[in-house]
Design a protein that fits this description.
It is a single chain. This protein is mainly alpha-helical. It is built from eleven helices and no strands. The protein folds into two domains: 235 residues, no CATH class; 83 residues.
Length: 324
């Protein structure tokens, strides 16, 4: 892959998502301002890369950091004390810098929460573009891996993006710092958990089974981000837990978790299918056994997704009847 192709695969997918949100989110921000946020996000990604490099060298000098991080517990420790705080802190710094100095934010004048939310999404997508470039140029991830990983930084940042938008959009800012800090810690924890789950497949059973929680968790974070975006736009977001009794609400929560497990692992199954087909030669793709394998696995994962969608629609319909 030459330099131009690498740049295209690293930058174009995040830009496509940015244009999608620009066209579907009614905010006062112009596209050039969002592109500026995108560039600031890419720069913050290089800043985070440098800080992580410095942390690794300092930790290696102080302790046997490489040996500690070989185990899954060590991976979790590294994500919680290094990767999560540095990357989420770099994105938060990029957002504050952009809004405060480039957009001339005035503390005495309220700012739309949706504008802050979309600015944060643009910074997060720029951060993802930088990360795509690093992984693809070093050969440590495939194009398919990075396509799936492109939106995750926006999913991580959604809680503190909403809290920051509420803080900047309120005339009373005294208690806003606490909400931003709390949701930033939430983002760090989610960031760490996703990276731990994505690394679990390298370890033997039963730790290997933790990887099946990755896509359900990503699906839940996407649903959470959509809800926070709607709240920042002052739009209603449909509730799915509407039971009148505690037992009924527990039943609905169980159904929601079951739907996330089915839907997330249906997506995960299609991802694994695409990865397995990537290793085959063009001639092998036309073997009858390969075609049956492709068809059966694809149908199975689609059925899982349809069942999850059916459960979700049932919960939505139950909630609409409850609040009608």
């Amino acid at each position: 892959m030459d330099g131009f192709q690498l740049l295209v695969w690293a930058v174009v997918p995040p830009l496509v998502l940015l244009v999608y949100y620009y066209r579907h989110v009614p905010v006062a921000l112009t596209l050039p301002k969002l592109l500026l946020c995108f560039v600031v996000g890419a720069i913050s990604g290089f800043v985070a890369l440098g800080l992580e490099w410095g942390f690794e060298h300092l930790a290696t000098w102080m302790v046997d950091w490489e040996r500690i991080t070989r185990s899954l517990a060590g991976v979790a420790l590294r994500q919680m004390v290094e990767v999560g705080p540095i990357e989420e802190g770099s994105k938060l710094g990029g957002v504050v810098l952009t809004i405060r100095y480039l957009f001339k934010w005035n503390p005495m004048r309220s700012t739309r929460p949706s504008s802050v939310f979309l600015s944060t999404t643009a910074v997060a997508l720029g951060f993802a573009a930088e990360e795509n470039w690093v992984y693809l140029s070093s050969g440590t991830a495939s194009i398919l891996d990075r396509l799936i990983g492109t939106p995750v930084h926006a999913l991580f940042s959604a809680p503190w993006a909403y809290a920051l938008g509420v803080f900047m959009g309120s005339p009373f800012h005294s208690s806003g710092y606490r909400g931003v800090a709390k949701n930033w810690v939430n983002a760090v924890a989610c960031h760490a958990l996703v990276n731990v789950l994505s690394n679990a497949w390298r370890y033997p059973v039963p730790l290997h089974l933790l990887s099946y929680g990755l896509f359900p968790f990503l699906l839940w974070m996407f649903w959470r981000m959509e809800g926070l975006l709607r709240r920042s736009l002052l739009q209603p977001f449909a509730a799915i837990i509407s039971g009148r009794t505690r037992i009924h609400r527990y039943w609905q929560r169980g159904l929601a978790l079951f739907a996330l497990a089915l839907g997330g692992n249906g997506i995960f199954g299609i991802f694994l299918l695409a990865r397995s087909l990537r290793s085959l030669s063009p001639e092998q793709l036309f073997y009858p056994g390969v075609w049956w394998f492709m068809f059966s696995r694809f149908v199975l994962n689609v059925i899982l997704g349809l069942i999850a969608w059916g459960i979700y629609r049932y919960l939505l319909d139950s909630a609409s009847c409850r609040y009608r």
